[in-house]
Amino acid sequence: MTTIPENAFQNLLEKSMTQLVQEKLELLLREEMSNYFTVEQPELRNSRNGHYKRTFETRFGTIRALRVPRDRKGLFQTRLFEPYHRRENWLEEAIIHMYKGGMSTREVAKFIESMYGAQYSPTTISNITATVMEDIEQWQKRPLEKRDSVIYLDGLYVKLRRDTVSSEAVYLAMGIDENGRRQILGFYVGGYESANGWREVLKDLKQRGATDVLVGVFDGLPGLEEAFREMYPKADVQHCVVHKVRATFPKIRTADKIEFLTDLKQVYTAVDGDVARAVFDGFKEKWKKQYPKEVKSWEDQLPTLLTFYKYPPLTWAAIYTSNPIERMNKELRKRLKPMNSLTNIEAAEKIIYLQATDYNDKWCGRAIRGFVDVDTKAAFEKMYRDRYEGQ
User: Fold this and answer.
1) How many domains does the chain have?
2) Residue range of the domain that includes 185
3) Is Kinase one of the keywords UniProt gives this record (predicted)?
4) Among residues 85, 110, 131, which one ends one of the domains?
5) Is the pTM of this model over 0.85?
């Protein structure tokens, strides 16, 4: 009995699929040319002039001799692919998505070769992903909505290779607009996180149209509050309560942690701002002797830690913490971590841009719960009018 190799059927199937795809593509090309002669440009009195052959890579295999029709005047151009384009867009898209997922250009090249038999050098992969840079430039200059109820600011560090490998800052800005939609407003890569760096970020956001902001939410980086108030003097500042709790936690003795943090939680979960301040007074009296520095730190920062109470209750959960932007940063770290260090700033921008646009696509049709409530929208509208009308 003759044994047929297990992969013979697979090879036969792939060959049949490639042949079928070639036949269908050539049929579409002929029909497209006929339509061009008879419907689109009949006045040219053009005619066929044979065909030329070209290779064309598809997800079903490589077509070695695709017959592409020609016209006598050399005017016809198929819409199935760009001139001199040798493969379907799906491969470029697959490469870009793998790159976004944290694979290095070398790893992507090896994967493409193992899956499709096509050899792509890391340089070729890098050139394919480089097409994203044009999109990044346009995206970073796009106009922004005039009104943002909330702007979140947060930074992370990524290892970049210039002459040497060093950690550099990624500044990230996220907003919730007046319709309750959340999106990444911009990202900025390079240098070390500083108040001056954030001042440039905020200046860019305002120049691109984000002029009317109600509240900025961020951590206690020295100088950031001043930079924000300088650019948005009519906006409120909300220091992230979760950041403050995390900073306080290690300074409390193990035996006191549960009780201390339970008492503290009563402050930022009170029914309103007046009750919150009254609860803090009790908290202060109870703990100031054991933890004078920690209690004093909370007391000094209390006005900006309790800002969220000025806003409609349904939005408190979204305003009192910068968790939404921190979750985005966590996702970015996960994507960037497998790469150890990136070859240049453009490599970092590609990955962050692809992640940011994915995020915006995900949230573009959604409104944050609580921000679309009728009473909430009316309260926000009054805030916008009181602060910015007549500017």
Assistant:
1) 2
2) 140-388
3) no
4) 131
5) no
